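Lab notebook, page 48
Experiment: co-folding of the full assembly
Goal: obtain a model of how the components sit together before planning crosslinking
Operator: M.T.
Materials (sequences as entered):
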Amino acid sequence: MKLERKRDMTMADLAAAAGVSPMTVSNCFKHPGKVHPDTRQKVLEIAAAIGYVPNLIASSLASGSSRMVAALVPSLRNSNFAKTLQGLGDYLHARGYELLLAVADHPEQEERVVRSLLGRRAAGIVMTGGEHSAGTVASIRQAGIPVVETWLDREPCIDMAAGFSLFDAARDIANMMIAKGLQHIGWAGHDTPQNDRYVQRQRGFQQAMEDAGLRSDLVFAAPESVGFATGRLAMEALLPQEPRLQGLCCVTDIVASGALFECMRRGWSVPDRFSVAGYGDYEIAAEVPPGLTTVRTNGGEIGRAAGEMLLQKIETGQVESRVRKIPYEIIVRRSL
Amino acid sequence: MKLERKRDMTMADLAAAAGVSPMTVSNCFKHPGKVHPDTRQKVLEIAAAIGYVPNLIASSLASGSSRMVAALVPSLRNSNFAKTLQGLGDYLHARGYELLLAVADHPEQEERVVRSLLGRRAAGIVMTGGEHSAGTVASIRQAGIPVVETWLDREPCIDMAAGFSLFDAARDIANMMIAKGLQHIGWAGHDTPQNDRYVQRQRGFQQAMEDAGLRSDLVFAAPESVGFATGRLAMEALLPQEPRLQGLCCVTDIVASGALFECMRRGWSVPDRFSVAGYGDYEIAAEVPPGLTTVRTNGGEIGRAAGEMLLQKIETGQVESRVRKIPYEIIVRRSL
DNA sequence: CTGAAAGCGCTTACAG
DNA sequence: CTGAAAGCGCTTACAG
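Observation: model returned without errors.
Model output:
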């Protein structure tokens, strides 16, 4: 007994049903202006009636264009990336492109995913950050596909970049703590040399401390993933090192909220007894008592800009500027 | 002047370079056992050397199989979905399938996205929840593609389902509040009849209250999106209605955390002055003082189960059981 | 405005 | 173990 594969309804079937040639059907969808209104209406009606769904795989192969852009993020749990993806998706959809989402949180997986995206002939790729394995970069270069790296505003980049300087933003908020008169400030971050986005922030903090002639080595680097617990652990680790510790500069608002929670548990008033700075301006920043002073980034705009650059490059082969700066700002609340 | 489209390196190119026929090349990748080890090694070496990337679009068209499963989520900001996607992705990748992620947060967008997924001939679809527009359901049925609806454990479903009863879980935790002796309990949720997952939870809460002979209409439904602010707004709205209010049962841990923040601001001790129940056991539940009692769901397992059912259906045409129950549990901390 | 023919880059039986 | 031929469902110049 042989399993017969169910055959999809095809353009030829629709053409037969409508009494026209397949290529007239094709034109009805792709170049409506080229076919007589009556013919078009009839074809479209019959298509709807019989439930014809154009095979986009065949379409891509024949046309050599997938009209599909891929976005690669390291994690789905970060609301910043969610905003970037939203901004990117909205831009692409409005222009008839689709967004294919892929997740890769370590270099090996990234290489696998990139190969697959290239295999599916994505029209362009949006990546997160600027750290990629040599294999990934080589595949992309070889394929000659347009790429935008996001949360980055510097060259060298593989192709294009949209974002801001994570280093500058962290330095700015650390400087704000210093300007408040704090002298003993710690950093709560993540021990991951792979994650360049975290490394940049830590360096920005340290630069500010050094420039002010303050101790810059009160650094807690979470060994595992970074989260609410990191804020608590940082305080537990740093206070014994420096009992005069007056504040904590955190790699994300989540970590900062965890530090605020720890202050509540200890009954420490914020900012009188202890100050906390965040990064990201997540929703929690405005709600957690007493309100978190933080860096507001514009993830949505980064996504939109990435989409714009990518489509420009895809459609014209070039782009106005390879690097687009998306400003950040510091939002002052009551935690420092 | 004519723009010449850059041609990809093709299997024929690789075959020529290796001195074999294209179909031997194809076999090297797809059926390695069918080709002599020496030949295979040579082909693979040359492929790597010249940077050949198989065209998966052509492959899909020729073979009639995309080996690509699509997942549709309403939002990227929910860490529960992130876990489901992770569980699903891991399962699929281990079996040579890939995960295509799509986001749709309203019916209209869902229909568009589903049409596109069908057009790209996804091998199966994982959806979130059980509420879908008639158009979406019709397209899916017409295509005859396997579908798993997640966060659901009931029939009727379009095809298959994996999850638990959101209603039961909410009723259970409300019953726990009642068992503690609380009599005046409010609900903090979302005003969205479209979001069946929220509606089910609210009904579960109300059922518990009614069964206990208590007032079940102390309900706050956030008009906009639901978040930390919702917890605060619910308290502000419900307290005037019922000054004896003793606790709040919340649609998510985020909302519950917002309520805890409001208690801190008011200087109300939890749970003595006020009790709070969450839903989801997000990371914040264990960290926010004094610890949130909540429903722990198993998003990762839901994703894995969905993948398992889907591949079974894709590969064998049938499935052991159309509905798979994934248990939840109540995690007791100190907020009630 | 409409259509016959060739081709996109693979895979699938089927022979050798 | 290897390969010539047909075909997957579209689109693309090119004629009519």
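Interpretation: The longest helix of chain B spans residues 299-316.
Next step: discuss with group before ordering constructs.
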